[in-house]
Amino acid sequence: MTTIYISLGSNIERERHIRAGLDALHAEFGPLAVSRVFESEAVGFNGRPFYNLVVAARTNMPLASVCQRLRAMEFANGREPDAKKFAPRTLDLDLLLYGDLVCEEPVALPRGEILTNAFVLWPLAELAPELCHPVDGRPFGELWLAYDKASQRLNPIPFHWEACELQHH
């Protein structure tokens, strides 16, 4: 079994799509470890604020199959196949880590946004503070402590999901 970490984001009907994403991930992978939900400003374009979080799951599925399933979940939630990178999203599911695998295909891992976006690093550090970045080598908790928190506004928000009560620290 491989532990995978997935970032979820939405800025269109945020609560509905985040819940739908969590439900789909739970149905596909079983029990999830779930960070708090954070509200963040859109990064890279002018748009409505996003809800973001990170989940951890375990799978025997090969990497390419995980990527295909995540894309199918996005499409099932209204994402357009030709959606631009910096644009509003119904549901964005990004594989951040697949165990400690480092690769470029079929997806770049570990995902670069881990080190550049607070809305990825903070929830990941919350879920796995002692886990080390496969390339950088430092634990995610340490990376978050060193992150320039003034560079991106990010706020934890209360959020309820049927399968578990998300933590509110």
UniProtKB/TrEMBL annotation:
Keyword hit for Kinase: yes
Keywords: ATP-binding, Folate biosynthesis, Kinase, Nucleotide-binding, Transferase
Pathway given in the UniProt record: Cofactor biosynthesis; tetrahydrofolate biosynthesis; 2-amino-4-hydroxy-6-hydroxymethyl-7,8-dihydropteridine diphosphate from 7,8-dihydroneopterin triphosphate: step 4/4
EC number in record: 2.7.6.3
One GO molecular-function entry: kinase activity
Entry keyword annotation includes Kinase: yes
Segments forming domain 7,8-dihydro-6-hydroxymethylpterin-pyrophosphokinase: 85-96
Enzyme kind, highest EC tier: transferase
One GO term (biological process): tetrahydrofolate biosynthetic process
InterPro entries, per the entry: Hppk, Hppk_sf
Domain of life: Bacteria
UniProt-recorded name of the protein: 2-amino-4-hydroxy-6-hydroxymethyldihydropteridine diphosphokinase
Organism this protein belongs to: Aeromonas taiwanensis
Lineage, top ranks: Bacteria, Pseudomonadati, Pseudomonadota, Gammaproteobacteria, Aeromonadales
Name of encoding gene: folK
